[in-house]
Amino acid sequence: MLRRQDQLTWAFILLGMFVLLVPRILQVLRGKWVSVETPPRYFARFEVDVNQADWPELSLLPGIGEVVARRIVEYRKQHGPFKKIEDLLKVPGIGPRTLSRIQPFIRITLPQEREVPETQDPSLP
Predict the structure, then answer these.
(1) What is d(CA 100, CA 55) in angstroms, rounded to the nearest whole number?
(2) Consecutive H or E run containing 73
(3) pTM for this predicted structure
């Protein structure tokens, strides 16, 4: 059994803890706890022009490895530029499922649609 003075010391410590912790517990229960807002997520998005990209760039697409990327480049060399996204289905190794996976990341730019840089007039400084 504790001495009277030890009992008072423990009573004082417990009372102090009670006084300090009860307001915090009530804040949590009432929903007044300070919440920290998380910063918004930023998503990087890239697009690959299948009529201009080399095989290393094409191999970054989901489900497209080096072999299929090289097939895309070879098909483009033999048959000319792709005119629509569905033309990629003609490349061996690309099926409907693969096409649906890469579609958000690809674009088709035909040669006449490419931006042509303006030539600078040599007479200007």
Answers:
(1) 19
(2) helix 66-79
(3) 0.56
CATH class name, domain 48-113? mainly alpha
Structure tokens at 121: 């007039």
What DSSP character marks residue 62? T
3-state secondary structure 14-56: HHHHHHHHHHHHHHHHHCCCCCCCCCCCCCCCCCEECCCCCHH
CA torsion through residues 76, 56, 48, 118, sign = negative
47-77 in b/e form (b: 16+ CB < 10 A) is: ebebbebebeebbebeebeeebbbbbbebbe
Contact 88, 99 (CB under 8 A): yes
User: H/E element holding 106?
Assistant: strand 106-107
Residue 124: pLDDT band (50, 70, 90) is low
